[in-house]
Design brief:
Radius of gyration: 23 Å
Number of helices: 9
Strand content: under 5%
Structural class: mainly alpha
Largest sheet: none
Shape: globular
Number of strands: 0
Number of domains: 2
Helix content: 55-70%
Length: about 200
């Protein structure tokens, strides 16, 4: 018998992974899945498949389904949207947007569907409530900038959400005189809440 050692093969270089890209893909897949089927009917396997990743990575990056939902919710409600909005155009811009069609491919429509799904689940409604306070009402209040900002922020949010629901139910864009009247009245309603620019 000879004492020959097998040749040592150099180790293959580790496969390069992009944790940030994987995390972002999972987060975007979660936003899409939760918007489409809600929290209770969406599984982690559904999300992982949509993201093209391993389901075991979700607990690693997000701690589980609730953590993933919370992060998706935070990513959905962007608190800085108002910061650069021209206050003198805000009411008319919103009115014109609401007179249009609810385009299912529009990220804003998907965002709203996600929020509606979250509001209807006993599991996620409290999470949504906290997120809305921190990431939606607080920035509106700060943007309005006065002592009555909290109350006006809540009224503005209610008006905005109501018009989003109406647009989603209506589906088609308004046209002709109906559109003109709608835009004028919605602009006046929102101007009445936000006050002079």
């Amino acid at each position: 018998m000879t004492d020959l050692a097998e040749p040592v093969r150099p180790a293959a270089p580790p496969r390069r992974r992009d944790a940030g890209a994987t995390r972002a893909a999972i987060l975007e897949a979660a936003r899409i899945a939760f918007a489409a089927t809600g929290y209770d009917r969406t599984s982690l396997r559904d999300i992982a498949a949509l993201a093209g990743s391993d389901v075991a990575l979700i607990p690693r990056y997000f701690g589980g389904k609730e953590g993933l939902f919370t992060e998706a919710l935070k990513a959905t409600i962007a608190p800085d949207r108002l910061r650069d909005w021209d206050r003198s155009r805000f009411s008319r811009d919103v009115a014109e947007m609401m007179a249009g069609a609810a385009d299912i491919a529009d990220p804003r429509t998907r965002t709203f569907q996600f929020l509606l799904q979250a509001a209807t689940s006993p599991t996620t409604a409290p999470l949504l409530g906290r997120a809305v306070q921190e990431r939606f009402l607080a920035p509106i209040r700060d943007w309005l900038g006065d002592e009555a900002g909290q109350e006006r922020a809540r009224v503005l949010a209610a008006i905005y959400i109501g018009f989003l629901v109406e647009r989603l139910i209506r589906g088609a864009a308004l046209e002709g005189p109906e559109r003109t009247a709608f835009v004028e009245r919605v602009t006046a309603v929102i101007d009445g809440v936000i006050g002079p620019g």
